[in-house]
Structure formats: structure tokens, C-alpha cells
Design goal:
heterodimer; A: alpha/beta; Amidase signature (AS) enzymes; 11-stranded mixed β-sheet; 16 helices; about 40% helix; globular; B: mainly alpha; Histone, subunit A; two-stranded antiparallel sheet; 3 helices; about 35% helix; about 5% strand; flat
Chain lengths: ~500, ~100
């Protein structure tokens, strides 16, 4: 019998439907692998063994009748940012200690409605603020890919637990979220596929809010097809989220295998950064060749405001975060640290409950929104955001179908990197290629495309027009076909 | 623009985050690094540009003004650190 945890979602789906395997067997294999690996990789913050086996049993009954949804019996990991009824939901923050929501997020409900099994909640940067998963209250996650001389590396962030678990085959696929690159950067660091859909494609209802105008849910998966299967299930219109798009969800899998002949692919010159490692430049060039070989037309384009996306993001995102995180006050849920007055109680609770990165962002946000600075910072940043979006609209109006860029400016770095710990802006630069996409609300996919000189996975990013995720799966599959898939050697 | 320690303390107060004098000092440096980084936005000509209010071009959904939910006070207070009879309990606010 094949190793059950090595099956992709599409392979497992076929075997489940053909009754070659049962969900109970598959779920059991993942629970065993995840529980065994967690001391080393720390990808999960809580395991839901009992619930998973119960869901698997229900799925098996359906599958035996020849029934069930698109993800029937498929074991998934769920990022700790998604509200899951009566299960640990803490955004990996101390301030949400003990929080078990009485409701289910729309995204997880959609997955469960399609038959998915949840095997646990996944580690992440606290409130999704970070690019290395090191800000989690539950400790850093280890990348299943080892660095030179066995150095332990970060899996990226904020969806570091999701990426690590998928790469190490501790779940068949995982939910994730992306506010500035939190799906695509960890996917690139772990040799997995991650897609951030168009803003409004997935409902944000029941997802712990960080920056509401930027947050989007999406999957991290082993290959492009699995990502397409998962996104189709996660996405939906939703009356509970006024910013969720009222558009039907297409069959993304149908885009895979379609030719890209004649497709116009833009190469933005502004993504060629000073001091970018040569291996990133080479990977990008390799991607261009892959697309050319497949018959696509390569067009040089310009997105002149690219370099302003990251600084504008570090005004807009903290501003929205400072407002969203005001709700954590020691009254309604989570941690409370007493004080003599109600204000003291608030201050003590928030000082003890939030980690340093979260405090920094709340304070920056509070500052840029405060009287006298609002116009100079916040309004200016929102104007720059308009210009960034116009850049994209202009190239799409010229007939460009999708834009090809590197996903990250480097491969995964070591846990506890001193330079990044000393300078928050250094860490922020991880998102330099991905954050433009959030600022413009566009879809972006990261697909593994090769290995670095140290043998670590590197990803390419494709950026699409609003609600044209299908094009990204179509072009992403071409990269995957040419580059192959990447699996770390098991050492944990 | 950069902030001084007094401003850091004022912002901490506005953010309802208790901060020690020592931490306010180091936080001042961290915040100034970030404020220095965003300074480059001043190089952009934003004359006549509308600030973004919605990233995707669509009408915000409206709903009928009717009650669709409720009578779940137990659920609402279930996770509170202190509650009694479906009320949230807080330190004394009014003398």
C-alpha cells in the first residue's frame, strides 16, 4: 500500500471514491504523522483527533453510498485565525487565551459542507503579523527544509504552520490567510503552492481581523490542482460579509491543462531590485523561458509605484489593525489582567496579552490615525494605494493577462536571524513582491519553480486581473509542469 | 517626522497598552525606524489623486432592516473572563 500521507488531495479523492482507502485510514495516518512531528516542527497548536475521526466516519458512510462533496474525507489543517466552533481559536495570541467560539467561520463551514475533515489548528504569527512565524505566542515553526549544515529555518509567515504542515505532509492541504504576503511567502519558502484570491472572493466572516481592507483567505497545497480544489470550496458569496463578492465560483480545476499559447505575460521592470540575489534573478528568467516555451508572449511592462507599496502598507495595515484590535479589552473574551480602574485593567490586559510586534503595529496605527497626522500619513497612503492600483489597471488595459514576478527576495532564512530581529523593517522587506497585490486587491499565486544554491525551494508569483484566479491556475500549472514538485527529505 | 519618548507614552495611553519607561525608550527607536521607512511616501506626487476607499469595484451589499438573529446571550457571554447572569463584569466604573 502506498504511503497514505504522500497522496495529493486529487489522488486521495480518487482512491476514496474508488473505495481503495477509507477516510478513517487516511485521517488516522495524518493524525499519526502530525502528532509525531509536532515536537520538532511545532506546526500545530492544537490537535483535534476526536473530531477528525468522527468527521472521517461520517465521510466514510457517505462515500460508501457513492455520495459526498468534493473534499469528502480529506484531512485538512486549519490556520488558528479561522473561528472553528468549540475549538481553540486564538490567532496564536496570548490575549485570546481559552477562546472557543460558539460559531463557525464561513470558510471552514464551506470546507466542512464539502466533506473536509479537520485534524487540528495551525500555528501562525500572532494576529497574522509577521513573515517568519516567530511572533506566535506558541513559539516558532520549523521549516521541513533544512538549511546548509542542518540549520533550522523559518517556514515564512504569517501562515507558517500551514506551509510547514503541507510541505511535511502533516495534512493534505491547509487554509491560510494573506494580508501582505502571508500565503505566498511561506508557500515559496516551503516548496508549496499558495494562492491569495481577489479581495472579496472568500468571505472574511469568522476570520480574526487584522487589516480588513487587505485580509483574504486562501489555500496552501502541494500542487496547483489541489490549490484549485481547495479554493473552489473555500470561496463563496456570503450575506454575512458585506465586502464579499456576489459572484458565482468557477470550476478552477477546469483551467488546469489549458494552453497558454498567445497569453500575454507582463514582466515588470520595477521588480528587479538592487542587491537582489542572482539566484532570484535567474529563477525569474527561468520562469520567463518556461512561459515562452509554452507559447506565451512575454511583454516588458512598468508598474512605476511599486516601491511605494510597502511603505504605504505599513501605514494602512497598522491603522486598520489598531482599530480592529481595540476589541481585545479583557471584557468579552480571552485574557484579563486586573487593575484598580477599568482603564488600568485594559492597559494591563493588553500589555500582557499582546506580543511586541503586535504592540508596535497597534502603536504605529494609533499614531498615524491621531489628530494632526491623519492627513499626512493615512490619507497620503490611501492616495498612493490608488496610484498602485492604477498601475495594474493600466497594464491590464494594454492587454496583459498575467504578471510574472519572483515571490520572495530570498530563500527561507534561519530561525532567530539577528539582523531581522534587530530591525523590523528588514523583516517587512520579505513582502516586497507580494504586498502590491494586496494593496490593489488582486489575486496572486506562488508556485515553486526551482531550488536555491543551498537546495532550498524558491517560488515564482503570478498576478492576475480581479476575479480571474482561473488564469493563475492555468499559468501556474505550466510552471509546475516545467519545474516539477518539491518535497523535503524527512528528518523530523 | 520622528517621535520622542513623551509621544510614545501618549500613544501607548491612547492604545490602552501599559508601558514601562524603559520599554518606551526602546519602542521610540523602533517606531522611528518604521516612520523613517514610510517617509519616502513624501516623494510621491499625489496632487488630485483620490484616496482609496474600496479596493474592488463593487457595490457594497445592503440588507433588509430586520432582525435575523438574537436570543443568544449565553453564547455571547460564554467566553467572558467574568460574567454573571449574561452580563459582562468589569471593575467599578461609577462611584
Amino acid at each position: 500500500m502506498t504511503d497514505l500521507t504522500s497522496l495529493t488531495i486529487s489522488q486521495a479523492r480518487e482512491k476514496l471514491r474508488a473505495k481503495e482507502i477509507t477516510s478513517t485510514e487516511l485521517t488516522g495516518a495524518y493524525l499519526e504523522a502530525a502528532n509525531a512531528a509536532n515536537n520538532t516542527l511545532n506546526a500545530y497548536v492544537t490537535m483535534t483527533d476526536e473530531l477528525a475521526l468522527e468527521q472521517a466516519k461520517t465521510s466514510d458512510a457517505k462515500l460508501a453510498q457513492g455520495e459526498g462533496g468534493d473534499l469528502e474525507g480529506i484531512p485538512l489543517g486549519i490556520k488558528d485565525l479561522f473561528a472553528t466552533k468549540s475549538v481553540h481559536t486564538q490567532a496564536c495570541s496570548h490575549i485570546l487565551d481559552g477562546f472557543e467560539p460558539r460559531y463557525e467561520s464561513t470558510v471552514t463551514q464551506n470546507l466542512f459542507d464539502d466533506g473536509a475533515v479537520m485534524i487540528g489548528k495551525l500555528n501562525m504569527d500572532e494576529f497574522a503579523m509577521g513573515s517568519s512565524n516567530e511572533t506566535s505566542y506558541y513559539g516558532a515553526v520549523t521549516n521541513p527544509w533544512l538549511g546548509k549544515d542542518g540549520t533550522k529555518l523559518v517556514p515564512g509567515g504569517s501562515s507558517g504552520g500551514s506551509a510547514s504542515a503541507v510541505a511535511a505532509q502533516l495534512c493534505a492541504g491547509a487554509t491560510a490567510t494573506d494580508t501582505g504576503g502571508s500565503i505566498r511567502q511561506p508557500a515559496a519558502f516551503t516548496g508549496t503552492v499558495g494562492i491569495k484570491p481577489t479581495y472579496g472572493r472568500c468571505s472574511r466572516w469568522g476570520t480574526v481581523a487584522f487589516a480588513s481592507s487587505l485580509d483574504q483567505a486562501g489555500p496552501i497545497a502541494r500542487d496547483v490542482r489541489d490549490a484549485a480544489i481547495m479554493l473552489k470550496s473555500m470561496a463563496s458569496p456570503d450575506a454575512k460579509d458585506t465586502t464579499c463578492a456576489d459572484l458565482p465560483v468557477p470550476d478552477y480545476e477546469a483551467s488546469i491543462g489549458k494552453s497558454v499559447k498567445g497569453m500575454k505575460i507582463g514582466i515588470p521592470k520595477e521588480y528587479r531590485l538592487d542587491g537582489m540575489p542572482p539566484e532570484i534573478e535567474q529563477l525569474w528568467q527561468k520562469g520567463v523561458e518556461m512561459m515562452k516555451d509554452a507559447g506565451a508572449e512575454i511583454v516588458d511592462i512598468s508598474l512605476p509605484h511599486t516601491k511605494y507599496a510597502l511603505p504605504a502598507y505599513y501605514i494602512v495595515a497598522p491603522a486598520e489593525a489598531s482599530s480592529n484590535l481595540a476589541r481585545y479589552d479583557g471584557v468579552k473574551y480571552g485574557l484579563r489582567v486586573d487593575g484598580n480602574t477599568i482603564d488600568e485593567m485594559y492597559e494591563n490586559t493588553r500589555a500582557a496579552g499582546f506580543g511586541e510586534e503586535v504592540k508596535r503595529r497597534i502603536m504605529i496605527g494609533t499614531y498615524v490615525l491621531s489628530a494632526g497626522f491623519y492627513d499626512a500619513y493615512y490619507i497620503r497612503a490611501q492616495k498612493v494605494r490608488t496610484l498602485i492600483k492604477q498601475d495594474f489597471e493600466n497594464v491590464f488595459a494594454q492587454g496583459i493577462d498575467t504578471i510574472l514576478t519572483p515571490a520572495t527576495p530570498s530563500a527561507a532564512f534561519a530561525i532567530g536571524d539577528k539582523e531581522m530581529a534587530a530591525d523590523p523593517v528588514k523583516m517587512y522587506l520579505n513582502d516586497v513582491f507580494t504586498v502590491t497585490v494586496n494593496m490593489a486587491g488582486l489575486p496572486g499565486i506562488s508556485v515553486p519553480a526551482g531550488l536555491s544554491n543551498d537546495g532550498l525551494p524558491l517560488g515564482l508569483q503570478l498576478i492576475g486581473k480581479p476575479f480571474e484566479e482561473g488564469t493563475l491556475f492555468q499559468a501556474g500549472a505550466i510552471i509546475e509542469q516545467a519545474a516539477g514538485t518539491f518535497t523535503p527529505k524527512k528528518w523530523w | 517626522m520622528s517621535v520622542d519618548t513623551a509621544t510614545v507614552k501618549r500613544v501607548a495611553k491612547l492604545s490602552r497598552i501599559a508601558i514601562t519607561d524603559e520599554r518606551a525608550e526602546s519602542m521610540r527607536e523602533e517606531l522611528n525606524t518604521i516612520l523613517g521607512f514610510v517617509e519616502q511616501l513624501n516623494d510621491v506626487n499625489v496632487d488630485g489623486v483620490e484616496p482609496m476607499t474600496s479596493v474592488v469595484d463593487m457595490q457594497m451589499r445592503k440588507r433588509m432592516d430586520e432582525v435575523t438573529d438574537g436570543n443568544i446571550a449565553d453564547d455571547v457571554t460564554a467566553n467572558a473572563p467574568a460574567s454573571e447572569d449574561n452580563f459582562f463584569m468589569v471593575p467599578k466604573v461609577v462611584e
